Records
---
Amino acid sequence: MSKTTAITHFRMRQALLGLSMLAVALSGFAQADQEQPGATPFRPTVTSGATLSAPGWLELEFGGQRLGGNGVDRRNSWPYLLKYSVNDRFALLLGGDAYVLATPAQAPRISGPGDTTLTLKYRAPDAPEGISFGLEATVKLPTAADGLGSGERDFSLKGIYGLDLPNGLHLDTNLVATRLGTVLMDQGNYQWTWAAALSRQFGDAWTLAGDFSGTAQSGAPSTAQFLSSASYALSKRLVIDGGLAVGLNSHSPRFTVFSGLTVLMGKVN
């Protein structure tokens, strides 16, 4: 590893540590008030649930991940998601990669900010007990540094279905249609993403999950992966997580390792 690379990695670790310490401090505000809501993590699975964070409260998710193998880019990124629920039906989400460090196959290293996503999330309020439905409409804005994104807007619509199962298990499934802003010759304009996650809470703090997901697009190779993760609630307002994903075919990253946190920051109104 070169001296420049070592310095870059050190600075990224310091930034992640600083943000983690800030999140811990924020999570300590007003801990004595037992009536306050708790954090509602959307991470770390690929699959989204229909649940929303506490209405009127600002919530932040932040983490780091590294992927590579099977001829794809070796990529380190620091994803974030800022969440605000207007009420128990609608939420606004702002997300993306705060920073990306990628090494494409047979190409020089690239670094810089990633793309930004804006999402409107809807949760159906009148679903039968034990069942949940949701929708997410997302636009991806091309804010990434050169070489780290397509440079075009993408639009996607996600359907969410959740189901409580016996023995404390919960199943979430997603189907996403994405209208890509740019494609290669002979490729379809739409990419389909599927995902399904099975999770179970153990006690008041631990949650374990397994997640299958993949993509399909006309004229492009399909991808598939399996992800396993664990989450732990350090407090009512702070949840940490970590896990590993492995590719299930030669067109998927061979591995992805990740960790992160979800913190309920404060009430907005």
Note: Residues 3-27 form the longest helix (25 residues).
---
Amino acid sequence: MDSNQIKTVVVAGASGLIGSALMELLIKDVSVNRLIVLTRRPLNFEHPKVKSILVDFKKLQTISESVKNADILYCCIGTTIKSAGSKEAFRAVDYEIPLHLAELAAKAGISKFIAISSLGADPESNNFYLKTKGEMERDIDGQFQFRKLAFVRPSMLLGPRKEFRLGERVGQFFMVIFSFLMVGRFSRFKPIHDFTVAKSMISISNSLNNQKIYDSSELQWLGR
């Protein structure tokens, strides 16, 4: 599909930091004719391009006809163990929902699936968060076939989160101050803005290569 062709795009997780930035960019994108947003809560705005579908992410088969033959599904679902309340609840969001979305996309004939993961994702990691992200990547890649499948791995995100996270704010402060030291192989650890990640996801979805993993330094370049 040529990047200039009119597209129907599906976004899951539009209320999050990257998801909301992605939606804003897609609404302005003249190559996107229709934007389907999968959400658990009603959106607080309307736009002629946007169709909002309230969903139970555990029962996505009920909406397969509504997204049939869309061109791209962007999976921006994600939380933290602290926000989820437990490791089990976190895994239900960051592992199970992306797999349900990949299954939905595959069955609905969506040819491109782009998902947010995390820098350091590794199914063999001793860190539960990174292990979960790595297992998500591995199992989607192993179970489903897409013409374009990609996982973006941003480092610490910069942007206006809706919820206040003290530890994250402190981390952002020091990471920004010392980011000039992060060069060469350490450049992937530089904090990255939400819109930079969102722009890079659009760029990746339009690319013709078969690369599946994009770390944060690549996202910085693609989203510039």
Note: The chain has seven helices and nine strands.
---
Amino acid sequence: MRAERGFTLVEVLIALAITAFVAAAAYAGLSAAIDGVERSRAEAERHWELTRALRIFARDLRHFVPRPVRDEFGETEPALMGGPAARFTLSLTRSGWHNPNNHPRSHLQRVNYVWEDDALWRESYPVLDRAGNTEAQRVRLFGGVTDLRLFFLDNPGNLDAASRGVSIDTRNWPESWAPDPMQFGDELAPPLALELVLQLDGLGEVRSLHVLPSN
């Protein structure tokens, strides 16, 4: 009779160690691949949100109309105002407010853009001339905004192209567009154009230049 020979304890331990090593290597590779997919998905979603926010911003400016409004305190707000000297980061009146249900309201809408808590928010009101209890509907457009600046073109003389003629130099444009508190009764005309400059976490600086319609 021939004696049957099995695996020794050392051989079993070596086999288990090799199996564990292969499994750990496979898991590490799979985990890295999953992490890469998740990072790519997060970056794609972030770029999509940024593109969407800039499109909404551009749409509102494209439909700008020079219609001043009254705030909840009964004071007149210019058709467009913004910057550090203004109440909101940017406030303007726009047309083209869709009314699919034919509600008895204006097609004009007052909107605000607010930079708060490292995010860009859009506010809209149900009426143009607000009362004390009028509440704005607020929507978060984009997060990770570490800095926000606006530059306003006040006259064509400040419309100087860069040396290569590709970009526009906005360094001499004023950063606030708000009424002078010492000039009572003077209506603030809208600027000719404005530039939005965003500093975004992980994406760097993003610039968006907009020409306002001539009404």
Note: Helices lie at 9-62.
---
Amino acid sequence: MRSLSRPSLIACLPLVAALSLGGCDKAKPSNEQGADNAATAAAAPTVPVPAAPAAPEGGKVDRSHKGEAMPAMPFAQPGGAPATLASFRGHPLLVNFWATWCAPCVKELPTLDALAGRETGKMAVVAISMDMGGDAQVGPFWKSHGLTALTAYTDAKNRLLQATGASELPTTILYDAKGKEVLRTTGGMDWSGPDAAKLLGEVG
């Protein structure tokens, strides 16, 4: 599990720093990391986000937001048209916040894709990328990884993530059919595993 930030081979820096650098470039190759990180540190202070403790399957379960309404903040469909979580109301909804440079995020995406295919018509699974490059960055990634059941939604300015109060990637939030939060997890999960099945069963 990693905190949201700019790309790195093994870790993600804090969300607060990434947001304070709204004009930062998109993810760069690893051999440019050192100079880029130094420039980032000089440009703005960072506020570390503590790592969540590990739990079975790597995720930490949080029910402290239970009952909160899903945010109305829009995000983007492939091609740039706006979308909102409210459009999925009527069925349970699993919302995953991720990024291409977040290793735990990338690892769990195939299990989310399988879940989306299996739960069609019963539960919506929405994966929303926080990559600064938006559609142009995520589209090629989607094709190269063979994800077919999920749609490549994006939120390049991280506004929806902020509206949920989350600060780490990956974060996944389960909503009931009325748009109320049931629980959330931080850290990579195997969404085809038994622990995940128990959590999804809490939606009722």
Note: The first strand starts at residue 2 and ends at 3.
